[in-house]
Amino acid sequence: MNETVLSVSFAGPHVSIQDAGRRGFMRFGVPASGPMDRASFAAANVALGNPAGHPAIEISLGGLMLQCVSGAVTFAVAGGGFIVEHGERKAGSWTVATLRAGEKLTIRPGHWGSWTYLAFAGDLVAKEWLGSASTHALSGLGGGRVATGQQLTVADAGIRAEREGAIPCPVTARPSHELHVVPGPQDRFFAPETMTAFLAGPYRLTDAYDRMGVRLQGPALPPHAPLDMPSEPIVRGSVQVAGDGVPTVLLADHQTTGGYPKIATVIDTDLDAFVQLRPRDMVAFQAVTPERAVELARMRAASAARYLAAIAAPAGKR
Q1: 3-class DSSP state for residue 43?
Q2: Sign of the C-alpha dihedral, residues 6, 128, 49, 296?
Q3: What pTM did the predictor assign?
Q4: For the chain, is the Cβ count within 10 Å smaller at the N or the C terminus?
């Protein structure tokens, strides 16, 4: 069995192992987790010929540095505008190359994006929890945080030279400063002028940004009724407003229930581009009907399927 061993020379905060997510457990209070940018995560895997949900490493703005101790493996990096330094070569993310014993791989932030994904042609050895290697950041359960000094193993490591080269970066992978939202489900807690202020914006992403969510700075959204609602299920993309009137967009590791009102819900197809914004970037919200949200979701799903089918072919045949 071919095996590649990697030593972690440096890992920034929020670098972790993720797969497609832990499905079916939210009713038991277990977050789904999974990648922040699901489209880029899938692209990194599919460009290597892996299943779209194969375990990979999610890398934050803190960056990652690996040393190949033994073996060799083809890897892919997709997501954001990160910089990939490999041997004597420097490239942007959205690339496939092969790492060999003695070589160093450094991935650091570039001009845009907050998250990128490192996938391998092989099986990244990782712990599973409830059938998934996705890491829940707060508890550490799952594949786990990647830490400086750690060793990683890729089992059944393969060299896929026919896949080396650039991965086309779709326009939809770029950060989006305008999000479509469906008002509610607790918009009744907010006066009409507060809803108008929310949609007029704009808001700035704050440094209070992690895998659970991001707090926004902008027009205050004070509820106009007592916050006596019982806790209820919440979803990725919920815009939850605390008693101080500050909105938070909930993300991959969000809690499964919450008792604060949700003024709106960001449609799922906009979230991957949203998480590529950086703290202090601006964002605005545009209200759409549930019917329009479904239309947008179907169009994005069809576009994503065509894109993944195209990059699934070896580089010379794309």
Answers
A1: helix
A2: negative
A3: 0.95
A4: N
Backbone angles phi, psi at 52, to 5 degrees: -60, -30
The domain that contains 197 carries what CATH number?
2.40.100.10
Euclidean distance between the first and the last CA atom of the chain, given in angstroms as a whole number: 30
Would 89 be classed as within a structural domain?
yes
User: Is 239:258 a contact under the CB 8 Å cutoff?
Assistant: no
Identify whether the C-beta of residue 266 lies closer than 8 Å to the C-beta of residue 181: yes
Q: Is the residue at 310 inside a domain?
A: no
Residue type at 144?
A: G
Any idea which residue has 């994006």 for tokens?
Answer: 113
Residue 314, in any domain of the structure:
no
Side by side, the strands of the sheet bearing 81-86 are 89-92, 81-86, 104-112, 64-70, 3-11, 151-155, 123-124
Q: Residue 279's domain spans which residues?
A: 178-287
Contact (Cβ atoms closer than 8 angstroms) between residue 186 and residue 164: no
Per the structure, how many domains does the chain have? 2
Query: Smallest Cα–Cα separation from 8: which of 61, 71, 66?
Result: 66
Q: Give pLDDT tens digits for 215-261.
A: 999 999 998 866 667 888 899 999 999 888 999 999 999 999 988 89
Gap between the Cα atoms of 78 and 32, Å rounded:
22
**7/153 same-domain check:** yes
Strand partners, 167: none
User: Helices 290-311 and 38-48: crossing angle, nearest 10°?
Assistant: 20
Same domain, 77 and 136: yes
Helix (H, G, I), strand (E, B) or coil at 213: strand
Instruction: Specify whether the CB–CB gap between 21 and 169 falls below 8 A.
Output: no
